[in-house]
Amino acid sequence: MKRLVIDASTGRTIETELSQDDVLAREAEIAAHAAAVAGQARANQLAAIDSRLTAIDVEAIRPLRAMAAGTASQFDTDKLAALEAEAMALRGQRAALASAV
Question: Pick from 20, 97, 84, 21: which is nearest to 56 by CA?
Answer without folding.
Answer: 84
